[in-house]
Amino acid sequence: MPAKGDAFDFRLYAVYVWTAHRMTFEDLRFRAEGYLTWACGILREQAVDLARRHEPHRSHELEQALNAHLSGQRWPRQGTAPSFTAQVRVSPDERVRERLRPYWEDRIKLECDHELQKVRARQADDLTRRWCAVLQNLDGDPVTMHAARLTGEQFAEVFRRYVAERRETVPELVELLREAVRGHNDLNMGPSEYTQAWDAALRTYERQHGLVERG
Fold first, then answer.
1. pLDDT over 90 (residue 112)
2. Distance from C-alpha of 71 to C-alpha of 94, rounded to nearest angstrom
3. Going by C-beta distance under 8 Å and a sequence separation of 6 or more, which residues neighbour residue 207?
4. Is 84 within 8 Å of 32 (Cβ atoms)?
5. How many CB atoms lie within 10 A of CB 90?
6. Cβ–Cβ under 8 Å, residues 62 and 90
7. Which helix (H) or strand (E) holds 140?
8. Given pLDDT bands bounded at 50, 70 and 90, which one contains residue 208?
C-alpha cells in the first residue's frame, strides 16, 4: 500500500472474520476461501486513500486510523451470502525500518541510561542517609573508620579528612567550656546552677572524646 509521496509502501496484514446463517462450517470455509480475493480488493479500496495521507514512518498512526475506519463495517452489506469484517496490522517499508533503527537505538540507550541514573541516584540517596546516621553517632562507634574503607578509597579519604577536621575542633571547644567555667568562678559567683551546668557539660564532653579517663 503506497505511503504519502509514493516513495515508500506500507505492508498491511489483514484478519478477516466470516459469518453466515444456516450454513455448515465446512460450507462457510469453502465459500470464504472463494471470496478471499474479493475481500482483499474491498480492503485495499478502503485503505488506499488513508495510506496516502500518512507519512512512511507513521505506520502505527495508519493502523489506528484504518481500524477505526473499518470498525462496525461489514461486506457484503446485504444478501444471504457470507459476510466479513476485517482488522489490520500495518508495518512500514523495510527501507524505512532500516532508517528508523539508529533513531530507536539512540532513544533506547538514552532511556536505559536515564533509568540507570535514577537507580544510582536512589542508591546514592540511601547510602547518604545511612552514612549521615553513622556520622551522627561517630564518637560512639569505634569501627566507623574501618567501615568507611570498605566503601572505596575516595570515600575513605574524604571521610578521614572529615573525622580529622572534626577532632581538631574538639580541643578548641573544650577550652571554650573551660574558660566559661573559670570565668564564672573568677566572678565569685560560687557553685551556681549555671556554673555547675557548664562544668557537667565540660566533663561529659571530655569523657566522650577521650580527653580524660572514663570513670
1. yes
2. 28
3. 214, 215
4. yes
5. 23
6. yes
7. none
8. low
Q: How many C-beta neighbours within 10 Å does residue 63 have?
A: 19
* Residue 2 DSSP one-character state: B
pTM equals 0.55
Q: Whose grid coordinates read 482488522?
A: 87
Give the pLDDT confidence of 72-108 residue by residue, as tens digits.
Answer: 999 998 888 899 999 999 999 999 999 999 999 999 9
- For residue 6, the 8-state DSSP code is S
Query: Strand pairing of 83-92 and 10-19?
Result: antiparallel
Strands (E) across 54-203 are located at 83-92
Amino acid at 148: A
Which cell is 130 given? 545511612
Question: How many residues are given for the chain?
Answer: 215
Task: Determine contact, residues 79/57, Cβ cutoff 8 Å.
Answer: no
Q: What grid cell was written down for 183?
A: 570565668
3-state secondary structure of 75: strand
Question: What are 189's three cell numbers?
Answer: 559567683
The answer to whether the beta carbons of residues 62 and 51 sit under 8 Å apart is yes
Look at residue 35 and give its three-state secondary structure: helix
Cβ-based neighbours of 47, under 8 Å, separated by 6 or more? 1, 12, 66, 88
